[in-house]
Structures are given as structure tokens and as C-alpha cells.
Automatic annotation (TrEMBL):
Encoding gene (name): lgt
Signal peptide boundaries: none
Matching Pfam families: LGT (PF01790)
Bilayer disposition of the protein: Multi-pass membrane protein
Enzyme class, broadest EC rank: transferase
Name used for this protein in its record: Phosphatidylglycerol--prolipoprotein diacylglyceryl transferase
NCBIfam families linked to this entry: lgt (TIGR00544)
GO biological process: lipoprotein biosynthetic process
């Protein structure tokens, strides 16, 4: 069994001001995506200025934060937030939904594509390989917060998390998700998108891979306490949200290559 490193969730405290590692992970994810977007900009659209790219990053970041928080409220714990709406503002405590953030980003990209006369899926294809940086950083934030841990196990890399009332050795599912949603997903999308691909193909591959990775890890991750299992006594909310994502991703890739075959 591995020892949990006991990292203080507060990275820096200056009087009453506290800077949490969870919030810093979002800054790392956004900053890393911005840096990589600059590297890819010439291939995507050399006419874009740095200011245009900065605007894109701003609206995507806004979509991530607003959509992620509202998605968590709607999908995972609506009753608690109805009882105390001010909890919505306490994002440093965690409570962000990837699927809500995804919807927020898609809405931001839809608005941005119309403003700058870009095809929507061209823009999504450009942004998709950048997303795993934020996903991976966010999972490290979950690990530091000692939240979203996995089921009990006797595997040699199990950990006892300080937030676990039962103090059982558990799967470090946050690290599994970091490895899959962060490292593996970035590697797949980055190398796949380095060559010209039909429009929608990169977006479709992102949806398929993320959906499959998340669906798989949910089998060893403890479901949200307030929800439990929602279908067949083994499907979680995360898995239910991933199913249409995987199907939609497959449809996008199929349509992308079918259209390319017609125009070849």
C-alpha cells in the first residue's frame, strides 16, 4: 500500500486570502492550453492575431468554469444548491462537472465561430487536443483535495485518503483519470491531429476516447454519495453521461470520413 502524501489543499495563505491548489490547477490547464494553441495557430489560421486567440482562450475558460459548475449543480447535487445557493460560488472546494464544462465550452465556441466566421467543428477540432491539459491538471487537483477516491482494494498501489471516514485502502482513481484523461488522451489527440484530418474527426475521437476512459474508471470509483448508482445497480451518473458522448463521437467520425470519401 502506498502512503497518501498529505498535501495541504491551500497552496498559499496571505492573511484571510487563501489560494487553493485546485484553483491553481485550472490556471495551469488554461495556461498550458494557451501556450499550445499559440504553437498550432499558424496551421489553423495564420490570419488570426494574438488578441483573437486570447479572446478564444478567455471564452473557452469561461465556458469551462461556468458550465462545469452549473453542470455539477444540475447533474449531481441540485437539491443541496437549492437549499443553499451560495454554495455555487465555492468552487475552490471542488464540485465541477466535466460534461457541464463541455457544454459550456461548446456554447462558447458556437458563439465565437459565428463572430469570427469560422465553421463550428473546425474550431472544435482546433480546441479538442488542448483540453486534456486541463483535464489532467484538474484530476491532480482532485487528488490533492483527497476527493473522488475509488473503491476499496488490496492492490499494492492503494491509498488511505484522509477524507475517507472508513479509512480503507482505496484505488487512487484520481490518478487513473489523470493518466487516461490527461496523459493518454493528450497523446492520442496531439499525434492524431498533427496530420490533416477531415473536419469533425478530431472532435469525434475526443468524444470517443474521453467517454471510454471515464466510463472505465467509474467502475473503480466510488459514486457520488448523494446519487449512488442510477441504473442496473452499477451505472453511475458519469457513465450515463458518457454513453451519448461515445455514440455521438462515433457518429461524428463516421460522418467525417464518409464526407471526405465523397469529396475525394
Amino acid at each position: 500500500m502506498l502512503t497518501y502524501p498529505q498535501i495541504d489543499p491551500v497552496a498559499l495563505a496571505i492573511g484571510p486570502l487563501k489560494i487553493h491548489w485546485y484553483g491553481l490547477m485550472y490556471l495551469i490547464g488554461i495556461g498550458g492550453a494557451w501556450w499550445l494553441a499559440k504553437r498550432r495557430l499558424a496551421d489553423f489560421d495564420p490570419t488570426w492575431s494574438k488578441e483573437t486567440l486570447s479572446d478564444l482562450v478567455f471564452w473557452v475558460a469561461l465556458g469551462v468554469i461556468a458550465g462545469g459548475r452549473l453542470g455539477y449543480v444540475l447533474f449531481y447535487d441540485l437539491q443541496a444548491y437549492i437549499s443553499n445557493p451560495l454554495l455555487i460560488l465555492e468552487i475552490w472546494k471542488g464540485g465541477m462537472s466535466f460534461h457541464g464544462g463541455l457544454l459550456g465550452v461548446l456554447l462558447a465556441l458556437l458563439w465565437f465561430s459565428r463572430k469570427h466566421n469560422k465553421r463550428f467543428f473546425e474550431l472544435v477540432d482546433f480546441v479538442a487536443p488542448l483540453v486534456p491539459i486541463g483535464l489532467g491538471a484538474g484530476r491532480i487537483g482532485n487528488f490533492i483535495n483527497a476527493e473522488l477516491w475509488g473503491k476499496a482494494t488490496d492492490l499494492p498501489w492503494a491509498m488511505v485518503f484522509p477524507t475517507d471516514p472508513a479509512q480503507l485502502a482505496r484505488h487512487p482513481s484520481q490518478l487513473y483519470q489523470f493518466a487516461l484523461e490527461g496523459v493518454a488522451l493528450f497523446t492520442i489527440l496531439w499525434f492524431y491531429s498533427r496530420k490533416p484530418r477531415p473536419t469533425m474527426a478530431v472532435s469525434g475521437l475526443f468524444a470517443i476516447c474521453y467517454g471510454c476512459f471515464r466510463f472505465t474508471v467509474e467502475f473503480v470509483r466510488v459514486p457520488d454519495e448523494q446519487l449512488g448508482y442510477l441504473a442496473f445497480d452499477w451505472l453511475t451518473m458519469g457513465q450515463l453521461l458518457c454513453i451519448p458522448m461515445i455514440v455521438f463521437g462515433a457518429l461524428l467520425m463516421g460522418l467525417a470520413y464518409r464526407r471526405e470519401g465523397r469529396t475525394a
